[in-house]
Amino acid sequence: MEPRFDLMTNPLGAKIAKRIYNVALAITQSSLPEATQNLVMLRASQINGCGFCVDYHAKDAAAAGEDATRVNLVAAWRESTVFTDAERAALALTEEGTRVADASGGVSDATWADVRAHYDDDQIAALVSLIAMINANNRLNVIVRNPGGSYEPGKFAALAN
Asked: Which residues form the signal peptide (predicted)?
């Protein structure tokens, strides 16, 4: 599978990617646990069918020390015992926030209450922003057909400069 377009070699595409990366950096530096961030990005990417982002976030999670069992069970988190209640709340919010276009009714009050019970305001700001940003990234990569398989952890660190 060949990409349709390389955003990173286009001057405007690279400029936009740098801005997106800087938003991601602000989220990364928040108090939202890194493990939760990785699980959320992986789950949204799975839902959206973004091979590049599934590859990226599974490998980043592993590089951060995430257990392979948890990475492998993200797609079946409801039927798994390896996630904390807080992570389950974040994964539910991820799914409901990602599927808003599927006429699913958006984010339920029950899911929102569960998120409020587990996260403070800064963490919620980071979580909501993370869900929005990973969905945007998934769409960019799916539209240009950026394939998964070749990502190496840390590949985009130079964008922060």
From this structure: none
